[in-house]
Write a structure and sequence with these properties.
The complex is a heterotrimer. By secondary structure, chain A is α/β, with parallel strands linked by helices. Helices cover 20% and strands 25% of the residues of chain A. Chain A is built from three helices and seven strands; from the N terminus they run αββαββββαβ. In chain A, the strands form two sheets. In chain A, strands 1-2-5-4-3 form a five-stranded mixed β-sheet. Chain A has a two-stranded parallel ribbon with strand order 6-7. Chain B has one domain: Cytochrome-c3 Hydrogenase, chain B (Orthogonal Bundle). Chain B is mainly alpha-helical. Chain B has 17 helices and six strands. The longest helix of chain B has 29 residues. By secondary structure, chain C is an alpha/beta fold. Chain C has a single domain, classed as Rossmann fold (3-Layer(aba) Sandwich). Chain C has six helices and six strands; from the N terminus they run ββαβαβαβαβαα. Chain C is 34% helix and 13% strand. The radius of gyration of chain C is 18 Å and the shape is globular. In chain C, the strands form two sheets. In chain C, strands 3-4-5-6 form a four-stranded parallel β-sheet. The longest helix of chain C has 17 residues. The chains are: A alpha/beta, B mainly alpha, C alpha/beta. Chains A and B meet through β3 and α3 of A and α1, β4, β5 and β6 of B.
């Protein structure tokens, strides 16, 4: 427990992926890395299988939208090494008009629904995903609701008068 | 396994039948739809459809200040709302760098462990109902009411508690709360023991649950399971022990693990966790005795709303009240991930902040959502009635599943 | 002395060996005290309904302990919890499958008005798709409130005309929802 420090982790990553992985920082002790979509599966597989690290537990996959940035979509992976009790966060940023990223279902089966949820909310397309459909929203929805431009409230409502809400 | 029919490839049936289970099926305890292909009573394949109560929590959270997100977390896993509330408060406290006094931590542990008891209580008693024993359910539900009465003394609400505030509690625990808690601690172990006696060695219950839906630790980890169902497979992953929050490191408790990850082990793990929760509450009560009894929140006027009588009579309090409500206090521009051990597993909050009053992005790592995705694949080859038992032992809560 | 209360007999003419009253009053009492609810529980309010059913609050006192999960045999549709737009058609289907006489109770803020979830995915009250008889406020309502709502339904049932479905205003109401 706790044998692996963040320094060791960063050193190992630096040795292996010197050019393709950049370190974004350690907010609240959680090492945050950025990589490109070309290497993401390689990095995830290595993190999972490297005997000294063993990030064998995929905590979560989600995304974030920054409409102002050129690479406006970030896909965020949280991994957890249960043997070393260390977490790591990986980010991949994608251009707004080319939101393709390889699927992580080849590494963990559990990535399946997490990626479907991310697709459903942000429209990020996971290439090679076995069943990339909407999961929470209705099937015939066209927009991707968690994108910043999508309104929170239903725009089709007629019973809501703006003057009741001081707008 | 005694009486199960043997399934062979040269089964006389030539056609599969399709069964649409849900979304409003009484045996599913919530809105889950599974379209199953059946060969006789055996499931050949299944497809889960979810999202029937998708309420867009994450989208709402981007439009709400931090303190207004607490009511949303209530409605994630509504069987154990206080854990969600406090998990969220601790996430914000981590972000803002607020240190809570020990007494607040211990009070939180009392409430969170009560919530864990009420969560596991529902799961296990409903599991008993699904195997045909309604008595246990009616018996223990009475004691869930006792837990709700303790919540009521602390926050005034029963189910969706909205308990506590960022930095601690909204008000101190009163004497009635403590006396109700002591009464509960005295009465509940007897009831739990009796409930165990009803089911643990009951022939029908054991036959229905043992070796049903057994899962190996490898598969469970591959599917990112967490919580009691992961521990039932033998992996001792409990966030309370791995990354102690709210001073769990000061306490002695054990993390029970099961043997083969079947429904019966899950039941045993949940039962044992209730005993451990009782142990934790006892310890917390003893520790509180040594702390000053008037502390129930951290001293952070920038984020903790002052009492109303001060707001009306005191200039400083009024200014703080105004600043908090209008969101004029700068917050760090960073990101934080905080996880707590919810009723069903690792409940994570991933908060990306841009310095404003509401999150730029808030993502809930919802254990029910992640645990449930294995349901359809693991149902393959199972009997329909076993699949129903399996669903109740996964304890998937619709609110947490669909967010 | 037992503390069991019996339902009062309806007003009528009483004499030696006979009691005369109108049949709709008798049937109304019978219906009101043997309602079979269909719990359409989707979220938090469903958990409070569990508490209402359990011994502490005991809905069985009102003759409603027989839950009917089949809409065909149910008299009262209790909608408890958020109804998302994805769920809307299912709820409507369940309502259509119920036989007359049927009553609907919207339990909780979400079922009544969408509650705190004013979002793109949530139906803003079930009365957009089916007619509702009684609304119960609360998020979630306490079991006492659910029982109070149930007693209001009982009052409605008692005084309802036997052939409500033939009344023009009822048919107009259903037609406004597009239900035949």
């Amino acid at each position: 427990m706790g044998k692996l420090t963040n320094e060791d982790l960063l050193k190992k990553i630096n040795d292996k992926f010197k050019d393709s992985v950049t370190v974004l920082g350690e907010p609240f002790g959680l090492v945050t890395l950025e990589t490109g979509r070309e290497q993401i599966i390689e990095v995830l597989t290595w993190l999972k299988n490297e005997p000294a690290l063993q990030f064998n537990y995929l905590t979560d996959i989600t995304a974030i939208h920054y409409p102002e940035q050129e690479k406006s979509f970030g896909v965020i992976y949280h991994l957890h090494s249960l043997t070393n009790n260390v977490r790591v966060r990986l980010k991949v940023f994608l251009k707004g008009d080319d939101v393709h990223i390889p699927t992580a279902t080849v590494v963990w089966d559990g990535a399946n629904w997490m990626e479907r949820e991310t697709y459903d909310f942000f429209g990020v397309i996971f290439d090679g995903h076995p069943d990339l459909r909407r999961i929470l929203n209705v099937d015939d929805m066209e927009a991707f609701p968690m994108r910043k431009e999508h309104p929170l409230e239903d725009p089709n409502r007629v019973d809501k008068k703006d003057y009741f809400f001081g707008r | 396994m005694q009486n199960h029919p043997v399934y062979t490839d040269n089964d006389p049936q030539t056609e599969l039948s399709t069964l649409n289970l849900g979304p409003t099926h009484p045996a599913t305890h919530g809105v889950f739809q599974n379209v199953l292909q059946l060969d006789g009573e055996r499931i050949v394949s299944g497809v889960s459809t979810i999202g029937y109560i998708h309420r867009a929590f994450e989208k709402i959270a981007e439009h709400r200040p931090f303190y207004q997100i607490t009511p949303l977390t209530d409605r994630l896993n509504y069987c154990s709302s206080p854990i969600n509330n406090m998990g969220w408060h601790m996430t914000v406290e981590k972000l803002l760098g607020i240190e809570t006094p020990k007494r607040v931590d211990y009070l939180r542990i009392i409430i969170m462990e009560l919530a864990r008891i009420s969560d596991h209580l529902i799961c296990n008693s409903v599991l008993a109902v699904d195997t045909g024993a309604a008595t246990g359910f009616f018996y223990v539900m009475e004691y869930r009411e006792a837990i709700y009465e303790i919540y009521e003394e602390v926050c005034g609400s029963r189910l969706t508690t909205n308990i506590g505030r960022i930095g601690g509690f909204e008000r101190n625990f009163n004497a009635i709360a403590f006396s109700k808690l002591r009464k509960f601690l005295k009465e509940y172990p007897v009831v739990l023991k009796e409930f165990e006696n009803l089911t643990k060695r009951n022939r029908i219950f054991v036959d229905r649950t043992k070796d049903v839906a057994a899962v190996t630790a490898e598969t469970a980890l591959n599917y990112s399971w967490s919580g009691p169902i992961l521990r039932a497979t033998g992996v001792d992953y409990d966030v309370r022990a791995m990354e102690p929050y709210s001073s769990y490191e000061d306490f002695e408790f054990e993390v029970p693990v099961g043997e083969n990850g079947d429904v019966y082990s899950r039941y045993l793990v949940r039962n044992e966790e209730m005993w451990q929760s009782l142990r934790l509450i006892e310890q917390a009560l003893a520790k509180i005795e040594k702390e000053p009894s008037d502390i129930f929140h951290a001293d952070v006027p920038d984020f903790y709303l002052p009492p109303k009588e001060e707001v009306y009579n005191n200039m400083e309090a009024l200014i703080y009240h105004f600043k908090i409500v209008m969101g004029e206090i700068p917050t760090p521009n960073t990101e934080v991930y905080h996880a707590v051990e919810g009723g069903n597993g690792e409940l994570g909050f991933y908060l990306v902040n841009d310095g404003g009053r509401s999150p730029y992005r808030l993502h809930f790592r919802r254990p029910s959502f992640i645990n449930y995705q294995m349901y359809a694949p693991m149902s393959k080859g199972m009997l329909l009635s076993d699949a129903i038992i399996n669903m109740s032992s996964l304890n998937v809560i619709a609110g947490e599943l669909d967010a | 002395m037992s503390d069991i209360q019996l339902v009062d007999a309806p007003p009528g003419v009483e004499g030696a060996g006979f009691f005369a009253t109108s049949i709709d009053k008798v049937i109304g009492i019978g219906r009101a005290n043997s309602l079979w609810p269909l719990p359409f529980a989707t979220s938090c309010c469903g958990i409070e309904f569990m508490a209402t059913m359990s011994p502490h609050y005991d809905l069985a006192r009102f003759g409603a302990e027989r839950l009917s999960f089949s809409p065909r045999q149910a008299d009262l549709l209790m909608v408890m919890g958020t109804i998302a737009k994805k769920m809307g058609p299912v709820l409507r289907q369940v309502y259509l499958q119920m036989a007359e006489p049927r009553w609907v109770m919207a339990v909780g803020a979400c079922a009544s008005s969408g509650g705190i979830f004013d979002t793109y995915s949530v139906l803003q009250g079930i009365d957009e798709i089916i007619p509702v008889d009684v609304y119960v406020p609360g998020c979630p309502p306490r079991p006492e409130a659910i029982i109070d709502g149930f007693m209001h339904i009982q009052e409605l049932v008692k005084t309802e005309s036997l052939r409500r479905r033939n009344e023009p205003q009822y048919q107009k109401l259903l037609a406004s929802y597009g239900i035949q």
